[in-house]
Write a structure and sequence with these properties.
The structure is a single chain. The chain is of the alpha/beta class. It has a single domain (10-264), classed as NAD(P)-binding Rossmann-like Domain (Rossmann fold), CATH 3.40.50. The chain is 48% helix and 13% strand. The protein has nine helices and seven strands, in the order E-H-E-H-E-H-E-H-E-H-E-H-H-E-H-H. It has helices at residues 19-30, 42-53, 70-82, 105-133, 154-175, 193-197, 212-224, 234-245, 249-259, and strands spanning 10-14, 34-39, 60-64, 87-90, 136-141, 179-184, 229-230. Helix 4 (105-133) links the parallel strand 4 and strand 5. Helix 1 (19-30) packs across helix 7 and helix 3 packs parallel to helix 4 (105-133). The longest helix is centred in the middle third of the chain and has 29 residues, at 105-133. The protein binds NADP nicotinamide-adenine-dinucleotide phosphate. NADP nicotinamide-adenine-dinucleotide phosphate (NAP) binds next to helix 1 and helix 6.
């Protein structure tokens, strides 16, 4: 069984060049982990590696890869299969907002490639090698939109629902092999995510956003406790519980009202 505090553990983090992935890298470096940092922007990964290396006796590997391509995904799964990885943070992903037919289909297929296809292949490589050694931990990053339909982000919400269902299933399969599998489902966090997805959340109250450091520390606590699912923060937990208590059309309609682009509201 993997002990989170064991010396010289190695974590591979996808999407480490910004946001939640970079915060995982910072926290795990402070805890003495060796790191493998994955994303497309190599310059960002090198900058982060230099920052984290400073004054620490840890090994940091930079692995630039586009998880939306066959070649990039192969580089990452090969690295996992090569061995020595004790934790995988399967975090890379992006969203897109707007009416389904207004978002280019290529962008949405790319999203499915990264959020679903690559996430599944990375988890497969990780669990296959961890189960042989009977130790390891996998964190798959979903979202609170995984718990409900997401009008005006239909494909994104569906990719996250896949991750939630998939990860809870893997959690049960993996426990007999001594591998911890946890689904991290954050609510809104200030990262580059909103700009890339085109979500206008500037007027959302501050209490709706979770600090990225808290998201990471709650996720690691959940791994330590061998939990299948963690929703960091009070507001997202309350929203998740509320969702379960009301008929399914309620959060669906509310999300439609909240996320419908202003220029379409007159229709
Ligand atoms: N922020 C939120 O409000 C929020 C809420 C719930 C869930 N999430 C989830 O949290 C995860 C991390 O998002 P974030 O908020 O940290 O957003 P972010 O700051 O935009 O980070 C996304 C990361 O994913 C990487 N990535 C995107 N496409 C990739 C590709 N094709 N190949 C390799 N890496 C790729 C990006 O790196 P490069 O661009 O350098 O490749 C970046 O490091 C995502 O799965 C997101 O869905 C975020």
């Amino acid at each position: 069984m993997f002990d989170l505090d064991e010396p010289r553990a190695t974590a591979l983090i996808t999407g480490a060049s910004s946001g939640i992935g970079a915060a995982f890298a910072r926290t795990l470096a402070r805890r003495g982990y060796d790191l493998v940092l994955v994303a497309r922007r190599e310059d960002r990964l090198r900058e982060l590696a230099n920052e984290l290396q400073e004054g620490r006796d840890i090994h940091i590997e930079v692995l630039p890869a586009d998880l939306g391509t066959h070649e990039g995904l192969g580089k990452v799964t090969d690295r996992i299969t090569t061995g020595g990885i004790t934790m995988v943070v399967n975090n890379a992903g992006f969203g897109a907002s707007g009416e389904f037919t207004e978002i280019p289909i290529e962008r949405q297929m790319q999203m499915i490639d990264v959020n679903v296809r690559a996430m599944t292949a990375v988890a497969h490589a990780a669990l296959s090698s961890m189960k042989e050694k009977h130790r390891g931990a996998i964190i798959n990053v979903a979202s609170t939109v995984a718990f409900q339909p997401g009008p005006y982000m239909a494909t994104y919400a569906a990719t996250k629902a896949y991750i939630l269902s998939f990860t809870e299933s893997l959690h049960e399969e993996a426990r007999q092999h001594g591998v911890a599998v946890t689904c991290l489902s954050p609510g809104p966090v200030h990262t580059e995510f909103q700009d890339i997805a085109g979500f206008d959340m500037e007027e959302w109250p501050a209490f709706m956003f979770e600090p990225v450091e808290r998201v990471v520390s709650e996720a690691l606590d959940a791994v330590r406790a061998r939990r299948a699912l963690v929703v960091p923060g009070v507001a997202p937990k309350a929203a998740m519980v509320g969702n379960r208590l009301v008929p399914r059309f309620v959060p669906r309609r509310l999300a439609a009202l909240l996320f419908q682009p202003d220029d379409e509201k007159t229709a």
